[in-house]
Amino acid sequence: MPTFETSKLTLHLCLKQLKAARNESEIRRLTEKLQRILFHRQYQNAESQQAAPSHEQ
């Protein structure tokens, strides 16, 4: 399974590219990329929270 880059740097670069984008197809492509990055970050965060031992009682 290929890994998906979700680092803060990747997110920052995508946002920077989106800000500079001038045509609709480039904006659409970068928006979809941004959505994938955010989805994978949320998924990774949820997985790490489930894997962490709970201290609640």
Describe the structure.
The protein is mostly helical and 57 residues long. The chain has one domain (8-50). Helix content is 72%, strand content 0%. It has 2 helices and no strands. The protein has helices spanning 8-20, 24-51.
Give helix % range: over 70%
Identify the overall geometry.
elongated
Strand content: under 5%
Number of helix segments? Answer: 2
- In round numbers, the mean pLDDT is 86
Largest sheet: none
Give the uncertain stretches in residue-range form: none
Q: What is the strand tally? A: 0
What string, H for helix and E for strand, traces the elements in order? HH
The quaternary structure here is single chain
Class from helix and strand fractions: mainly alpha
SSE order and pairing:
Elements: H1 8-20, H2 24-51
Helix pairs in contact: 1-2
Notable features of this structure?
72% helix; mainly alpha; elongated; 57 residues; single chain
Quick take:
By secondary structure, the chain is mainly alpha-helical. The chain is built from 2 helices and no strands. The longest helix has 28 residues, at 24-51.
